[in-house]
Specification:
By secondary structure, the chain is α/β, with parallel strands linked by helices. The protein has a single domain, classed as Rossmann fold. The strands form 2 sheets. An 8-stranded mixed β-sheet has the order 3-2-1-4-5-6-10-8, with helices on both faces. Strands 7-9-11 form a 3-stranded mixed β-sheet. About 45% of the residues are buried. It comes from Methylobacterium variabile. This is Epimerase. Pfam families: NAD_binding_10 (PF13460).
Length: about 220
């Protein structure tokens, strides 16, 4: 079993990944400013309060870790101003991982990041840009920084996120020609992340995850 560091562990995909990793028997260090309030009980869970923009916090969190899941998010209200969290946190994380000798990184970005932007349907393109443009420009910078690193990385680009339990019925689109937007439960994204940590089936690649495709 692996010892995982989940950055952004207090909510969303990060919290679902903590749950899925614990259910699979892994040890998990849950990193977030509000980590102390994570309402889970498991002997393999370590809550680690910290700031993803703090180099000392991140360096301390990497001690004894086998793999890192970066699952950061910003509140919806912050999407309409400058967004720097993804790139700034990655500029802290990557050199810290390289120094610590932790090579495996699964980074959650999103459909529309990097070379998947061209796959956004024409009806979705304008509203996507208006709402998510600043955040996804920063996610582009996040991915570019990771690509320049020496790490064994995988980019997980989920479509439109939904709640609810994992279904196990989703598609892993690993060829650019197959990329399309769609709905997917956060819990399904987490299940894929935990499986990828074990199987390492997409190292150095980006995958799009969807359950139900959206109309173009």
């Amino acid at each position: 079993m692996a010892h995982l560091l989940v950055i952004g562990a207090s909510q969303g995909i990060g919290l679902e990944t903590v749950k899925a990793a614990l259910a699979a028997g892994h040890r998990v260090r849950a990193f977030a400013r509000s980590a102390g309030r994570i309402a889970l009980s498991d002997p393999n869970l370590e809550r680690f309060p910290g700031d993803a923009l703090s180099a000392p916090d991140v360096a301390g969190a990497l001690e004894g870790i086998d793999a890192v899941v970066q699952a950061l998010g910003v509140p919806f209200r912050d999407l309409f101003g400058p967004v720097r969290l993804f790139s700034d946190a990655t500029n802290v994380l990557v050199p810290a991982m390289e120094t610590a000798g932790v090579r495996r990184l699964v980074a959650v970005t999103g459909f529309g990041t990097g070379d998947s932007r061209a796959a956004i349907g024409p009806l979705q393109r304008l509203p996507f840009r208006l709402v998510f443009g600043r955040a996804y420009d920063d996610k582009d910078a996040q991915e570019m920084r990771i690509r320049r690193s020496s790490l064994d990385w995988t980019f997980v680009r989920p479509g439109v996120l939904t709640g609810g339990p994992a279904t196990g019925r989703y598609r892993v689109l690993d060829r650019p020609s197959s990329w399309t937007n769609g709905l997917i439960a956060r819990a399904d994204v987490a299940q894929f992340i935990v499986r990828e940590i074990v199987e390492n089936g997409h190292v150095g690649r980006a995958v799009v995850l969807v359950s139900h495709p959206l109309p173009l």
